[in-house]
Amino acid sequence: AQSVAQPEDQVNVAEGNPLTVKCTYSVSGNPYLFWYVQYPNRGLQFLLKYITGDNLVKGSYGFEAEFNKSQTSFHLKKPSALVSDSALYFCAVRGYHTGKLIFGQGTTLQVKP
Amino acid sequence: GAVVSQHPSWVICKSGTSVKIECRSLDFQATTMFWYRQFPKQSLMLMATSNEGSKATYEQGVEKDKFLINHASLTLSTLTVTSAHPEDSSFYICSASRQGVGELFFGEGSRLTVL
User: Fold this and answer.
1) Could you check whether the bond before residue A7 is cis, i.e. omega within 30 degrees of 0?
2) How far is CA B41 from CA A9, A40, A76, B53, in A?
3) What is the pLDDT of residue B104?
4) How confident is the model over B66-87, as pLDDT tens digits?
5) Do residues B74 and B99 lie in contact, with contact meaning Cβ atoms separated by under 8 Å?
6) Which chain A residues touch B103 with a CB distance below 8 Å?
């Protein structure tokens, strides 16, 4: 079975400071990992993915994530947060055989001016 | 990027009626689409996997007769909530992907309110 855990319901950070949103996963076989962002009453926007290759993945809007196999983690990071980054962030893992995308519980990011 | 269109974006209906939600992949063919349900301030729960030309695969606990899924073409999947009740009120989101294990592209969601 595949699963994703986001241990923080909410992350608060001041604008201009670096941010980290944590994610750990469990999956059989190679992990296919994703980060999505959701704004209120909207669908999900794709930020970045790890399929294979370099452990540091760069994505949209200045976000990046680091795949750590030994710690089974895929934390989302950004060097300098913007107020407009405030939203709900989801980590997800996709099973190779099932194709299903399973989401973590989500983390609300609040960036204060 | 790929575009997935979902319609309607919101719908209000009376208890006992049926509601159909459409999900279209506009610029690519999707052999597989996925339907999710999201409650306020919660995560997305996978309801079913929609396969073009065959029956949908439902997740455990999802009523097949309540949530009818039809994937009649490579660009269209529909979710019909039959005999809707207030507890079916939710945000329904569809997604689709190109072949392989790449990212899924999501529709904008459909908010269903059953009175």
Assistant:
1) no
2) 10, 9, 20, 34
3) 87
4) 999 998 888 999 999 999 999 9
5) no
6) 34, 46, 49
Q: Which one-letter amino acid corresponds to residue B59? A: E
Q: Do A102 and B46 touch (CB under 8 A)?
A: yes
A-chain residue closest to B42, CA distance: A105
pLDDT in tens, B4-49: 999 999 999 999 999 999 999 998 888 889 999 998 888 999 999 9
Chain B residues near residue A102 by CB distance under 8 angstroms: 46
Count chain A–chain B contacts defined by CB atoms under 8 A.
Answer: 55
Length of chain B equals 115
Residues 6+ apart with CB under 8 A from B47: B35, B36, B37, B58, B59, B62, B67, B79
Q: Give the torsion sign (CA, B36, B38, B43, B45).
A: negative
Could you tell me which of B52, B32, B35, B36 has the C-alpha nearest to residue B97?
Answer: B32
pLDDT tens profile B45-64:
999 998 888 889 999 999 99
β-strands A19-21, A73-78 pairing:
antiparallel
The secondary structure of residue A1, as a DSSP letter, is -
User: Using CA atoms in the order B93, A102, B62, B14, what is the torsion angle rounded to 10 degrees?
Assistant: -20
What type of residue is B38?
Q
